[in-house]
Design brief:
The chain has 115 residues and is of the alpha+beta class. It has helices spanning 13-32, 74-98, 106-114; strands at 46-52, 58-65. A hairpin with a 5-residue loop joins β1 and β2 (58-65).
């Protein structure tokens, strides 16, 4: 791998790489926004295949709709479990935050207090 012209000791995934990847994903989805059917109260799962070049710049090489989520390796099992948890947490928060409190059942109100 080429030297990036400095020390990598201060490199962090969350502060340096993840924002770049998020930007590429957002830009990719933004270009498709007008061509995709918008369905209320639904979501799609997209699988992004990303490769890093010699300068550690992320490039989207493929986007899969409803990607296969079979557990083919231990690291993939962990990643899928964490992704599912994050997705469910996001959906739960969207539901709880977008419905007016007077429409909530007692169970929903209790969940909102825990969020």
């Amino acid at each position: 791998m080429k030297s990036l012209g400095g020390s990598h000791n201060d490199f962090t995934w969350k502060q340096q790489m993840l924002p770049k990847i998020n930007d590429r994903v957002w830009r990719t989805l933004k270009t498709l926004q007008e061509t995709q059917e918008q369905k209320n109260n639904c979501f799609e799962i997209y699988g992004f295949d990303i490769v890093l070049d010699e300068e550690l710049n992320p490039w989207v090489i493929e986007v899969n709709l409803s990607p296969a989520c079979s557990e083919r390796a231990p690291w993939l099992k962990t990643m899928l479990e964490e992704s599912c948890f994050d997705l469910l947490t996001h959906v739960q928060q969207r539901i709880l935050l977008t419905n007016p409190p007077e429409a909530w059942s007692a169970e929903m109100q209790q969940l909102r207090e825990q969020a």
